[in-house]
Amino acid sequence: MKETLISQIEAAFDAAGWQYRKVEQQPVIECEFEAYHAKVAMHVQAFEELSTASIMAQLSFRIKPASRLPVWDALMRTNLTLNVGNFEANIETGEVFFRISNVFSGGSVDKGVITSLVRTAIVEMDRITPFLAELNRQPQQPIDALLAREDLLPPVNSESSP
């Protein structure tokens, strides 16, 4: 019997020593990771028919209505600099996400690819968190100047990576 994509994703999480919760009746697992700036909620979904895994990290707070336009602008500017994955936002609720996906040919999952995707989602969400918090607090500030602030970046060799 062929292993399902979600069971292979679970095996990658088990091998990495990461705790997670299975979502009943869904090919989904959820978990949280302690990163440098915040706890990052993670939603990992398997699309068996597409042999695709989608990893989505969620910002730990919602963006206030008055701050949404500058935050959406900052997210789009940030997306232009990314090589993999992208930031997304729910305009109605103020939720912000980072999503990264991979198609696995032949139905076989490389555990290293899964852990790399998860780590990328955590790092990207953690990296943008303080910038979005600043814009949420002061939406009128110049976005270019804010995004250039290196003091808001986590240290390169952070002990808090998963």
Instruction: Strand order, main sheet: write it out.
Output: 1-2-3-4-6-5
Number of strand elements: 6
Beta fraction: 15-25%
C-alpha-based Rg, rounded: 17 Å
- Taking pLDDT < 50 over at least 5 consecutive residues as the criterion, the unreliable ranges are none
Helix and strand element order: HEEEEHEEHH
Secondary-structure content class:
alpha+beta
Helical run tally:
4
End-to-end separation in angstroms reads 32 Å
User: How would a textbook summarize the main sheet?
Assistant: 6 strands, antiparallel
Mean pLDDT: 92
Helix content: 25-40%
Net shape: elongated
Kindly describe this structure.
This protein has 162 residues and is an alpha+beta fold. 35% of the residues lie in helices and 25% in strands. It is built from four helices and six strands. Strands 1-2-3-4-6-5 form a six-stranded antiparallel β-sheet. Strand 2 and strand 3 form a beta hairpin. Helix 1 packs across helix 3. The longest helix is centred in the C-terminal third of the chain and has 27 residues, at 111-137. The mean pLDDT is 92.
List the helices and strands and how they pair.
Blueprint: H1 5-16, E1 21-23, E2 28-34, E3 39-47, E4 52-58, H2 68-79, E5 86-90, E6 95-103, H3 111-137, H4 143-147
Antiparallel strand pairs: 1-2, 2-3, 3-4, 4-6, 5-6
Helix pairs in contact: 1-3
List keywords for this structure.
about 160 residues; alpha+beta; six-stranded antiparallel beta sheet; 4 helices; 6 strands; about 25% strand
